[in-house]
Every structure is written in C-alpha cells, then in structure tokens.
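Title: Prediction job returns without error message
Component: structure pipeline
Severity: low
Priority: P3
Assignee: unassigned

Description:
Job completed but the reporter wants confirmation the result is attached to the right record. Sequence as submitted:
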Amino acid sequence: MPATVECPRERVVLEFARYLVEERALSQASLDNSLPFVRSFLAHCFGAGPVVLGDLRAPDVTRFLLRKVHTVGASRAKLMVGALRSFFRFLRWHGDITIDLAFTVPRVADWRLASLPKSLPAEDVERLLKSCHRATVTGQRDYTLLLLLARLGLRAGEAVALTLDDIDWDAGELKVRGKGGREDRLPIPRDVGQAMATYLRQGRPRDCTTRRFFVRRRAPLRGFASSVAVCTIVRRELERAGIASPRKGAHLLRHSLATEMLRKGAPLAEIGEVLRHRLVDTTAIYAKVDLVALRSLAQPWPSGGEA
C-alpha cells in the first residue's frame, strides 16, 4: 500500500513526525533514521487493516523485534529500538495507549571494542581509486570524493556538507563541519587539491546555483540529499574494482586511513587528531589492529606442571 495520508498507518507516522519536529526539534536526518522502523512496525502489526493503537501489547513488540533483529547490524538495531521507544512514548503522551510499551523494548548489546575495525589494505585503497573512470564527469566526481575520504578520513556527512566556501586555496586548507557543530581546518594534500581543482573545472556543473561542492549528475542539480549517496558511490566503486569487503560504506575508508597510519608507526594521539576524535577512547579501538605490539603483551600459555 502506498504511503499516503489516506493510509491509516501513514497518518499515525505523520503525527509522530510532527511531534518529533515541533516538540523535540529533531532534524530531518533523525526522522529519516526513525520513521522507516515505525512504518515497518505498524505494517507488521496491522497490515492493510485499521490501526487500533490501543490494542498494542508487549508480545507485538517482541515478535516484531525477533523478526527484524537478524536482518540489521548492531548500529541499525540500536536505531530501531530507539525509534520504537520514542514512538511508544509519543503514543502514551498522545493518549493512544495506556501501557508503557517503551519499557518493553530491550536494549541492544553492542560492545564497541569487541571486534576489529573493518579496513582495506593500502594496495586495495589505491586499486579502488584507480578504478574510477576519471575520463567521465561522474568518474572524476567520484574519484575526488573517494580521495577526500581516503586521504583526509572525512565522514560521509562531512563530504556531503562540504561547500565551495569551505576551500581556502591560498592557505591550502579545507574547513570541515563535523559532529556537534564542530569545525576543523585540514591541510589539503597535493593529490587531493589537484583532484578537487580538476572536478571544479571539468566535472562540476557550471549552471547549478548550489554552493555544495559535490553535485548530483541528474536534475535537479543540487548537493547530495544525505550520506546515503556517498555510501552508494563507495559500494559501486568497490564492486567495479572487484574488492570484496564485509563493509562497503564510506567509513571503510576512514578506518583504512587510521589502520594504515598505525601500521606505519603513528601514535594513537596523532591518529585521533587526524580523525578529529574528541575522546581518546574513540581512537582506542585501533590499538587492536597493532598485532605486533599486542603480541608483546600476551602472556605465555601454561605448558604443563601441577594445577
């Protein structure tokens, strides 16, 4: 069933979205992360029939989560349970339910240091960059984008937000708008600067009015709508280069930069500075990549003797 205001489920979703914007002042990005899970939950519970919110019970929540949790990763699962808790609080505040269903939504176990950061070896990063068809307008744009991710460790959202006014050609610096409204200035490496200049001269549409640096190739000519577009480009170029990776998003190149710096002897403090981490603990995950240093800390396994 199409998601229109005539759809009973969609009317509930639109009321929830209005609440998120007007009462909680959330951004469009937050809505984009939350609303799909709410739509999926309502479809699971009510299908195409009438939406009777007062009939919702804890088993409905459990059945939905058990069905969905195996189809998403840990980060998406955390977004899902957060969206549902917020939705159930809204329903109770709105008077649609009397049961505190938010209390029935479990937490997602996600130990941040439980696994190694997924990264590509340096030769695969170079292979990825070379796979871009730089003779085409789209290829030059995508090459420039990948180069910014690989050399400067930009996040997908930071690349999307980049504007023409953020480039200081005289100083050779780039202003990056990061998390929490933070702004940093990064030096522009020579190959990155050359790629950016080539894109501006030969790839970026001249008839567009947006100040965004990266522009869509299809009308309307404007900047990328979200970081999803950046991740799509990374995934497409990985497939073109024939590189198999368990992770295919933009963060893969950020992790690859940090991992390569560590392998070349850079201290964690320097890596955290390049990646613009606010907390040292955020950079600590890369310590596990340094297997040589970790071996020196490992204790020998007991080889015998009395217990």
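Comment from assignee: result matches the submitted record. Residues 291-298 have pLDDT under 50 and may be disordered.
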